[in-house]
Design brief:
Blueprint (H helix, E strand, L loop, with lengths): L5 H4 L12 H12 L6 E5 L6 H13 L13 H8 L5 E5 L6 H10 L10 E6 L6 H12 L5 E7 L7 H4 L3 E4 L5 H15 L2 E2 L1 H11 L3 H15 L2 E2 L1 H7 L5 H13 L2 H14 L3 H20 L10 H11 L4 H20 L3 H13 L1 H4 L2 H4 L22 H16 L3 H7 L3 E6 L2 E7 L3 H7 L2 H15 L4 E7 L7 H22 L1 H10 L11
Parallel strand pairs: 1-4, 1-5, 2-3, 3-4, 6-7, 9-10
Antiparallel strand pairs: 8-9
Helix pairs in contact: 3-4, 5-6, 8-9, 9-10, 9-11, 12-13, 14-16, 16-17, 20-21
Length: 524
Amino acid sequence: MSYVALARKYRPQTFDEIVFQDYIVSTLKNAIELNRISHAYLFTGPRGIGKTSTARIFAKALNCLNPKGINPCNSCENCKEITDGISLDVFEIDGASNRGIDEIRQLRESVKFLPAKSKYKIYIIDEVHMLTEAAFNALLKTLEEPPDFVIFILATTDAHRIPATILSRCQRFNFSKIPFKEMFSHTTNILKKEGIVFEDDALSLIIRNSDGCMRDCLSLIDQIIAYTNGEITLDKTKFLLGLSEDTIINELYKSVILEDKNKIKSLLDEIRLKGIDYKYITEKFLHFTKLLLLMHTFENSAQKELTAEEISFFNYLLKNTNKEKLFAIYQTLLKVYNDLKYFSFEQDIFEMGIFKILHIDRIIPSSTIKNKIPVKSSNENTNKPLKSTLTLDNLEAIWKKFLDFIAEKKPSVSSNLGYGYLISIENNKMVVGFAEEKMFHYNIVIKAENIDFLKRAAKKYFGNIDEVIIKLENGSKKKGVIEKVNEIETFKEKMLKKELKENKAVELLLKEFEGTIVDIKIKK
């Protein structure tokens, strides 16, 4: 007997063999048991996850002569004919090649005749979204009111392309991609039955490249078995999947994270010479960055899906980065990826993206990237001292955020404190200054109840502030946040008024009506 591909050989033949689609299986089994069979079903979802197989099993279960509970027996005449695709009462129609109105008219005529030897006459229309608009319209009436002995099962990967009039006449079942754990368990059992020697890491890699599609996974396994003469190893799997270039990509990503500029230069030259696709590299980098963010956020995230080599690689990178930097890297890479789609000078776009990542601490505050300022959220309270490596820009950013924080509890304190400025945060103290001309606001802030409130708020916000000192600085010309904001707004208004005066359209109006500008008011 000729060889049968694994995807065909291990195609589910009973409800119990369907992988992961539990709610769908339960619903269909209950429908059979309670004799609540609908006249039309719609199976939607990605390719290779069991839509057509489920349709066949459902058809066999409905027409089986000797059912085993709810499952078909797979040994009676009806079951064998449906499995072999030669049943006179179960028709599998390819919507892509039978998409016209003439084919649907023939179908409408055929549904009138009784089943040859089964209880139900069942039409399985695969890729039903490929039917033409006229064909869908011709199908409508038959689909809504077929004879009692006719059942339609429509299958599609693109449910959004099916008219709403068709959708409303069907019971819809959404099939899901198969998770890694279920795929690994199922394929492991198959390989053991076949007597195939395999490495777990190699199988993990195959499953990840199958993107939740069991048919793709088994087809890849078939191909690798043929190439390796019956043994699935990680190295040969990488080669066959075209992942041999990933070593260079991994090294480049690692060098970027570690800011190893000398190595980055040589790797970029190697990538250019080998002609590795820059869009592919960027996709890999985005995936790596997302994975590191997940590992930072959730313990043991995605560990089961990674090979031992990958776990070691990402754990090492994890120690050399932080969430803030990874967020910034991801946004930069996303911009690079979008630019690569629309511009032809791919090398320049990619390399400039790498340079931007290497200087990312200049794009966003270095304190955020390097975790120099452990500003705490409102529900955190640690005793780690704040480091004193603060720049003027950092102080102002922190000050604005703190003012917003206390404004939620005491707006009056926040508004008056906003006329002051943050001098320092060190040695568990927060020092705030006021210029002498802001005596009014200073006197409000230094009231005992307000100082107590600020101590509690600072402790809660920063984590370990024990003392708040408010100083009146003689001769100080420093301005608070509120004054700076007002100055910025005033400057913007001046610039806007200037633009309006110089506007060509305004000049033409003034000339036409011999008018003059008396005043310009900015509506806020």
